[in-house]
């Protein structure tokens, strides 16, 4: 089982979905560390309660983005981590850390990439009047939210939606596709090949990709 770290900054609902999935027998990844750049992230207590090591370092204690990322990398290496899942980790990852973990670091973004990279995705989707919105799991590369896409899920945008209502609808899908995407990466059924995530599908994956 691939030793997996989950990086968070806040409440950690995607982290919870990943912890639940990885606890199941036969899942190809095990969650061995939850790490936050905020010492008060709510998700840290949830991880501890689930019996998973929870650690944090404040990015404010480091002189540069790369200095912080080198400290994060040292934490990951010390635990023998194989795979990293960014789950609401609200830090731009330095090119140095991206390169070190290329093909082994994935993230979830609350939009149908390549649309709505960056922040405030739900409000921007409503402003644009799109009728379909969703979430994407992708490999992390130096360019923000631009890595090869592993899995996506779509939801309808409904008349009268607020950003919060739309976010909640998308979040339910995030909790489904992120564990599926992690399973695919951990089992080797999807790999990063150049600029593409290439998958060898079996029937259990198809739902995650449509
Ligand atoms: C999730 O919706 C995730 O997609 C988003 O933050 C939320 C974290 O919620 N990530 C980003 O916006 C990344 N730029 P959670 O802490 O409950 O998983």
From TrEMBL:
The record marks 145 as: Raises pKa of active site His. Pfam families: Formyl_trans_N. Its EC number is 2.1.2.2. Keywords: Purine biosynthesis, Transferase. CDD domains: FMT_core_GART. Catalyzes the transfer of a formyl group from 10-formyltetrahydrofolate to 5-phospho-ribosyl-glycinamide (GAR), producing 5-phospho-ribosyl-N-formylglycinamide (FGAR) and tetrahydrofolate. Belongs to the GART family. This is Phosphoribosylglycinamide formyltransferase. It comes from Lichenibacterium minor. The lineage of its organism: Bacteria, Pseudomonadati, Pseudomonadota, Alphaproteobacteria, Hyphomicrobiales. The gene is purN.
